[in-house]
Design goal:
Layout (H helix, E strand, L loop, with lengths): L2 E7 L7 H11 L5 E7 L6 H13 L3 E6 L3 H8 L5 E2 L1 H6 L4 E5 L2 E5 L2 H12 L11 E4 L3 H11 L8 E5 L2 H4 L6 E4 L4 H4 L7 E4 L23 E4 L7 H13 L2 E3 L2 H15 L6 H15 L1
Parallel strand pairs: 1-2, 1-3, 4-6, 7-8, 7-10, 8-9, 10-11, 11-12
Antiparallel strand pairs: 3-5, 5-6
Helix pairs in contact: 1-11, 2-3, 5-6, 5-10, 10-11
Length: 290
Amino acid sequence: MARRFVFVGVTTSASSMVPIFPRWREALDLGDVELEGWDLPVGAPAARYREAVMRLREEPNVAGALVTTHKLGLFQAAADLFDELDEHARRLGEVSCIARRDGRLLGWAKDAISAGRALEAVTPPGYFAGGGHALVLGAGGAGGAVVERLLAAQPPPGRVIVTDRSRERLERFTEVETRLTGDGTDVLATLPPRSLIVNATGMGKDVPGSPLAAGARFPPRSAVWELNYRGRREFLRQARAQQDELGLEVEDGWRYFVVGWAAIIEEVFERPILAAELDRLSELAAVARR
């Protein structure tokens, strides 16, 4: 029986990784392994998360899993079912990577690594030297990873503000400003030029809409990062409509998608991926992007 690499998401059959994975499997010589999607609704009950983790524990041909939208919910509901969690998972309260090794179930939070690699392309070294701020829309796993990398930047942003609809999610952020809101438009208006605005909400992919009102205006010469790589991505459309007028640098979630999957494949299959190989994987993935 072929080994299975599980993808825990919302609409996994629509993921670009479905046609990409066979190409990556061959390029990385992963052998006889199949990608299998497990769909759970956004905000699934704790019992559903525990059921999924128990399946990962008990089904012997499962090598491991990648978790997207459900990173926080899965940790909150089923952290006790893991034999070991890495320090990032415990600190951030999320699990994005799961592997079975010698009968033990291990979990990691890989978003901070992926976010760091992708953030370099959006905000190169010294980007915030002019005093720009950072607005992270969404306090989920991806938002938390981006904040962690921003606080480590040299120099860091003049302010880091995180918005979310959930008070519980915002309570994790003790070193930055937080706003309990589903619309970040008012906060956006306070940002100076050359800031960074990130959509880490999942709106535009998992659920429709944008975390900004239709008439929202981005600060001039800012970087705008849409973490979603597919879907209607209304936030991305808003940024691109103002790109030329305001001199915006607009980035979508494609690089984040590629490096995120690569980091988890490295861990699950204990197969290091070199920089040149990552470039090759990105080339192979371009078919799905087109």
